[in-house]
Amino acid sequence: MNLAIVLQKPMNKAKTRLKNWLSLYERIGLADSMLYDVLNTLSKVSSIDAVGIVTSDARAIAIAKQFGVHIFHEGEDALGMNQAIQFVVETLPRDVQHLFIFPADIPLISCDEITNLVKMVKNHSVSVIPCKKGTGTNVLVLSPPGVIQTAFGLNSREEHCLLAKKAGLHYWVFHSSSLSLDIDTIDDLLLLKTMGQGTKTKDFLERNQIFKC
Ligand SMILES: Nc1nc2c(ncn2[C@@H]2O[C@H](COP(=O)(O)OP(=O)(O)OP(=O)(O)O)[C@@H](O)[C@H]2O)c(=O)[nH]1
Ligand SMILES: C[C@H](OP(=O)(O)O)C(=O)O
């Protein structure tokens, strides 16, 4: 079974690196639109058997319910991505063979790319999809779910590869244009402006005239 989970911290604490450009209202709206785009895409991919969200945020739960997504209720104080994932992994049934871990801030995510990814993870224990900029991991696939502990944070791309290597596991790095843009900074938003045709996120930014900043 292929399970995809999406991580969403409380929206009023999300996207703080955009504080200088966007108001709290705009940052919540941005997080809301990106989550919609990610869940909308994932729930259309036929080779993903189930989609879940890990969150304590009421707004995120309401969006997830529109897509019939399973809700993993996290405690109110979000303790970070790694703890949120650990909590999910501990509760999963044994028939989950591949756990696809997604952030909620990759609105360019596409059905075709996820379909490709699902085909390609079969021969690997750990699949790392890096972010375009810097040294991070955008998407991580663990086969099976607890095969390594996750290490989201500083240099997570290298950390995930190192953890797999140390455990003697097969791992690979998959470069994907649609999965590599996570929205953290104003430059990311500007890129989204040119590439995000058809996404709810681009619509939200345009309706709120956010590109005028
Ligand atoms: N469930 C859950 N998700 C988290 C947690 N921390 C981060 N995330 C999610 O993980 C993804 C990547 O996080 P970041 O890129 O740091 O995004 P962010 O925290 O909204 O942005 P900054 O405030 O600018 O760091 C986003 O979808 C976050 O909502 C957490 O403690 N719990
Ligand atoms: C989640 C983190 O990246 P960020 O989006 O916070 O730069 C990471 O890649 O481990």
TrEMBL record:
Signal sequence interval, chain numbering: none
Keywords, sorted A to Z: GTP-binding, Nucleotide-binding, Nucleotidyltransferase, Transferase
Main EC class the enzyme belongs to: transferase
Name by which UniProt lists this protein: 2-phospho-L-lactate guanylyltransferase
GO molecular function list: GTP binding; phospholactate guanylyltransferase activity
Superkingdom of origin: Bacteria
Gene3D superfamilies found in the cross-reference section: Spore Coat Polysaccharide Biosynthesis Protein SpsA, Chain A
EC number: 2.7.7.68
